[in-house]
Amino acid sequence: MTAAVIEKATPADIADLRQLYYAVYGPHYPTALGTDPAEMSRLIQDAYTLWLVARCPRTGALAGSAAIHGEPGSRIGRLEGLAVHPDQRGSGLAGQLTEALCAGTLNAGTLDSVYATVRTVSAGPQRVVARNGFRPMGILPNAVDLSSRESLALYARHSPGVLDRRVPVAEVPASLEPLLHTAGASLGISYADTRPTAAQPVPARPAAAPLEMIEAPAFVRRRFDAHFPDTGRWFYPLHTPNVLLTPGDGSFEVYAYLNRTGGYCALVAAHPDPAAAAGWLEPVTRTLTRAGAGYVEALVPLEHHAALSAFTAQGFIAGALYPAMRRDHDGFHDYAVMSRTTEHIDFRGVVVDPPLQPFLDSYVSAWASAHLPSREVAP
Question: CA 290, 249, 240 angle in degrees (round to 5)?
Fold first, then answer.
């Protein structure tokens, strides 16, 4: 198919879209975008989502689909749901859809950056986004459970000039230095003025107390909105918390998005502040693991040395960096993606394109430094 017809999706496409995603991903696709008719209808009509489909010009049959999803108050978008029917693979359709979406968002000036989490079972998805201006920013090991645990790669594309307006960061924990150098080389930016320093001590956790996990999405969202009316205090774009963790005395609340289908969780925010829960990261992670999250991640501002130190102390590893992720007046703040997986990591089935390889090497080195004992040579 050389001249596909690309147009906006409509609610009338939902049945065909579900068949398309099943044909591409089978029964294990973990997001509502390709499986839940009500959510699909909402996204298609959402003012902050651009959903495009590709049709065969001769028959009108649905051959491909992709969307960029945003949200109010944020100028970051997520490329998701990129699917091309197996009969049309190799036709260039994935690239056409991706470029059309970027033209309608980044080029139109409505977004500052768009990111994508890309499968690593083959190099094809990485090359599709790379050909459309996306650059690698890290690896997310064991990030999702499809038919088995898969690692994803993080890619992003920025609007012109955005990376030049990053807010400088004075220092970071020394364990992040290799990732900064790798990301800098990938994106053509410099962290030469960011000093690697020793990790800060983590507050001691009080006497052991059980954590309660509340799974009532509407209640959790109402309480979250009441505590965090300003996104600048939490900023985890495109993730709506659906669970709440708190000790019996209610001294803090941790908000998270738990996806049992995909077996992953994102820590979104802590109230009254992250420091209140810093010493509780281990029991928080353990509770979420028991609830079905084999992978837990947090998005941490690069300038928050204490928070980065706390996550590192509890076995989280910075596998990806997102420079210029959040706009703050005329500047942009960098974020690190800290992740922890309780399941065995097996990179033997991972296929990485050459630009992504340094990030995989950086993660393996960081994991070894964090989890393998240092060898001493006897005199």
Answer: 50
Distances (CA, A) of 275 to 23, 158, 249, 250, 310: 46, 31, 16, 15, 9
Helix segments in 208-327, DSSP class H: 217-227, 274-277, 281-290, 305-313
Residue 3's pLDDT band (boundaries 50, 70, 90)? confident
Residues 124 and 131 sit within 8 Å (Cβ to Cβ): no
Asked whether 102 and 133 are in contact (CB, 8 A), the reply is yes
3-state class (DSSP) for residue 246: strand
Q: Look at strands 113-119 and 76-84 and give their pairing.
A: parallel
pLDDT in tens, 343-363: 999 998 899 999 999 999 999
Give the β-pairing of 295-301 and 264-271: parallel
Q: What are 111's two structure tokens?
A: 């977004």
Query: What's the pTM?
Result: 0.91
Query: From CA 126, how far away is CA 120, in angstroms rounded?
Result: 8
Per-residue model confidence as pLDDT tens digits over 11-30: 999 999 999 999 988 887 87
CA distance 71 to 78: 10
Q: What are the percentages of helix, strand and coil residues in the chain, rounded to 5?
A: 35, 30, 35
| Maximum distance among all Cα pairs of the chain, rounded to whole angstroms | 77
Closest CA to 321 of 69, 139, 126, 123: 139
